[in-house]
Amino acid sequence: MSAPPSAPPRRTLSVDDHVAGVRAGDRAVLARTITLVESNLPDHQRKAQQVLLRLLPHAGAAVRVGITGVPGAGKSTFIERLGLDLCAAGHRVAVLAIDPTSSVRGGSILGDKTRMGGLSREANAFIRPSPTQGTLGGVHRKTRESMVVCEAAGFDVVLVETVGVGQSETRVADMVDTFLVLLLAGAGDQLQGIKKGVLEVADVLAVNKADGDGKRPAALAARDLEAALRFVARKDAGWQPPVLTCSAKTGDHVDRVWQRVLEHRASLEARGLLAERRSRQALLWTWAMVEQALMARLRDHARVQAARGAVEDAVRGGTLTPTLAAERLLAAFDASGSDGS
What we know:
The structure is a single chain. The protein is α/β, with parallel strands linked by helices. It has helices at residues 15-23, 27-38, 42-55, 75-88, 112-115, 117-120, 143-152, 196-201, 215-229, 254-270, 274-300, 302-317, 322-334, 336-339, and strands at 63-69, 93-99, 125-131, 157-161, 178-184, 204-208, 243-245. Strand 5 (178-184), helix 8 and strand 6 form a beta-alpha-beta unit.
């Protein structure tokens, strides 16, 4: 029995192909362009930057919303409900969903298309799951670039779903217009799992699963949260974060949450802060890229590689502190300046 014919190899796309395909809204090219942007291969990175440079003038008009929440808060269900409602209203919605990368094997599930089955079949929606690849803040290190690609493809709403509330989760707030935090009413401490830093940067908060027997606990949790916010320093003194209740399961009040997101963005625009926020985010993006590039160069540097084994052995053996170990590795890196190696 003969083997089935293999599929022909995919044609390599040029920079022009990527730009034209994204601008035309070609979903296959859009997906391949984000894959190019996320690639760690040097050739791919150089090509991706050429593509992004040409797409930048066509980006920036979308409403950018970061969505995070405690475990079990129903982020994916909420995003699917909101996305379907927005598509029905004529919007084009891109969802950049971040899945945690395993610290053991480095893999990730990337199951958001499964969890958002209805939205994934919507013609005006695009869902892109990506691994964190160890990046702190619950986002992929190239999430910012992926947002540019989606906006250039004509999506006027970009939702960034983060891994979940954690110590560094607030980084997503530095790449979106509005940071939405979903909560879940539970027994005992209603604020369990919420970090103070998240409350400081939250622009809108919503207690989800306010349906059936959950309505009253959700209302109580919202009241407690409003009280707690009075003691939290705000990043924006001109905006008081609203606390709402909603049910992604039934759809109740999801529209109200979205309305407050739009009100927050309108407030930023009215005070001239939206452009300022975007400019500051671009600078943060720049320095984040510098830090990542420097770390990559340090790890791959010949002198650092030569010193690494002995330094790590000394740390494991307890004869060298981590601080001194770091200084030795950095000294090996700095020594290249004198001889160019």
